[in-house]
Amino acid sequence: MLRNFLTVGSWTMLSRVLGLIRDQLLAAFLGAGPVQDAYLVSLRLPNMFRRLFGEGAFNAAFVPMFTAKYETEGRTAALRFAGQALSTLVAWLVILTVLCELFMPFIIPVLATGLQGERFRIALELTQITFPYMIMICAAALVSGALNGLGKFGAASAAYLSFNVIGITAIFLGAYVWHNVALTSAWAVTISGVVQLGALYWAAHRVGVAPHFVRPSLSKDIRDLMRRMGPGLVGSGVTQLNLTVDMNISTLLPVGTPSILYFADRINQLPLGVLGAAAGTTLLPLLTRHVANKDRASLHASMNRALDYSLLLTLPATIGLIALAPSIMAGLFSYGHFTVADAMKSAQSLRAYALGLPAFVLIKVFSPGFFAEGDTSTPVRIGFFTLALNLVLNLALYKPLAHVGPPLASTIAAIVNVAILAVLLRRRDVFKPDPRLKSRVTRIVGAAIMMGLWVAAAQKFVAPDLPYWHGVWRLSMLGALIVFGGVVYAVSLDALKVVKLRDAAAALQTRIARRRTR
């Protein structure tokens, strides 16, 4: 599991780094203003449906069914089921896309109530361009699910790099050729969906699991898929409604606030996307096999190790983001039209998001515990409660705390969410923390706090005004502080006997030697 975890995490990390470069370019060319706000709204709608139908309830229901069919009925039956699912999904999404394109002028005000005048006009134009991306990326997610179900994680994770590669290219073309960065970036979104679907289908074809289009029909398998998917769809919808609430509230704040929150969230999503995606993607098929084999000991062990690995990497990221937030936002984004003042506001939002980072990651770890047993209804009830909580907190906090209110509301809601998930899984005998986990988590927390104190002290005495330095020197010093923090954390882990550096170095050398002999 650790190898698959690291494979998905490595590809996702590369994708996130490219995504960071893309965001830096967007910040430099568009700043935190009306055009940036409109462009970000145009991404919200297709991404919402992508997470609903591509990465949310559909995949949570599809992957266990596909894996089980492959294991019990063979490749032919599994591919027949995948082809039926793909055809039904695409047919439904095409209908949905046509309807949304026609009624987009009425949908945008629901998504972003505060957009008026020019911001509304730009958002409408860009959203009508980006929305078809949903069809391609949801189909790509299904093909990716088939690959993941067979333990083929590398190709599926690598394909998603194209979104950022094409996006970066489009920004330069928009800036220096067509002189409209927002428009070219919107077209890049849809084009990247076509490329991702093509790359994944080619990868699936190579290993013999490429599903074929057939006439859509409500077969027994598809009805079973929809039955399993239904409650989860509502649950995923609750999560997306939470994000929509945050977006809507941000448009009611001063112009540029959606942009300020977006860039803070993107930094928070860097560790969240890498660790959360790696944990959720690799854990679901594994837990499904344990449940099918009625192997509770292995189920408990897999959950504990996934939580262990996740916190080992998440907690230092949390402490580091809180300690270095102003320097991070200024160092990465304070160029061109994105000012230092914008970066300082975004840093405040980042700290509020980072407080909830462990909770956001652990939701990705705990959710497969329900999905593996075919239970997608329990997260729905939890989701409705946290949706209501997030809405109440947003309304209570957005005026007094401005740009800090929405991220803080999301953080509190996530902490409540993960606490409820953990309690329920414990009662169901799916999650059973062992003494090793409890001991290691305590020591990991200690190492992360030690790292944060050393990093904060180093910045205070070496570069107290780092956010206001010249760009190159600021970025260099930020990199040095991050490396310093990593060294302190590694030494602390070694001193607390969480990870022995000598053993880790030996394992790395062995892996490198194996690769060289292939």
TrEMBL record:
<feature type="transmembrane region" description="Helical">
    <location>
        <begin position="475"/>
        <end position="493"/>
    </location>
</feature>
<feature type="transmembrane region" description="Helical">
    <location>
        <begin position="404"/>
        <end position="424"/>
    </location>
</feature>
<comment type="pathway">
    <text>Cell wall biogenesis; peptidoglycan biosynthesis.</text>
</comment>
<keyword id="KW-0997">Cell inner membrane</keyword>
<protein>
    <recommendedName>
        <fullName>Probable lipid II flippase MurJ</fullName>
    </recommendedName>
</protein>
<dbReference type="Pfam" id="PF03023">
    <property type="entry name" value="MurJ"/>
</dbReference>
<keyword id="KW-0961">Cell wall biogenesis/degradation</keyword>
<keyword id="KW-0813">Transport</keyword>
<feature type="transmembrane region" description="Helical">
    <location>
        <begin position="158"/>
        <end position="178"/>
    </location>
</feature>
<keyword id="KW-1133">Transmembrane helix</keyword>
<keyword id="KW-0133">Cell shape</keyword>
<keyword id="KW-0573">Peptidoglycan synthesis</keyword>
<feature type="transmembrane region" description="Helical">
    <location>
        <begin position="353"/>
        <end position="372"/>
    </location>
</feature>
<feature type="transmembrane region" description="Helical">
    <location>
        <begin position="89"/>
        <end position="111"/>
    </location>
</feature>
<keyword id="KW-0812">Transmembrane</keyword>
<dbReference type="InterPro" id="IPR004268">
    <property type="entry name" value="MurJ"/>
</dbReference>
<comment type="function">
    <text>Involved in peptidoglycan biosynthesis. Transports lipid-linked peptidoglycan precursors from the inner to the outer leaflet of the cytoplasmic membrane.</text>
</comment>
<feature type="transmembrane region" description="Helical">
    <location>
        <begin position="444"/>
        <end position="463"/>
    </location>
</feature>
<keyword id="KW-1003">Cell membrane</keyword>
<feature type="transmembrane region" description="Helical">
    <location>
        <begin position="309"/>
        <end position="333"/>
    </location>
</feature>
<comment type="similarity">
    <text>Belongs to the MurJ/MviN family.</text>
</comment>
<feature type="transmembrane region" description="Helical">
    <location>
        <begin position="131"/>
        <end position="151"/>
    </location>
</feature>
<feature type="transmembrane region" description="Helical">
    <location>
        <begin position="184"/>
        <end position="204"/>
    </location>
</feature>
<keyword id="KW-0472">Membrane</keyword>
<dbReference type="InterPro" id="IPR051050">
    <property type="entry name" value="Lipid_II_flippase_MurJ/MviN"/>
</dbReference>
<feature type="transmembrane region" description="Helical">
    <location>
        <begin position="379"/>
        <end position="398"/>
    </location>
</feature>
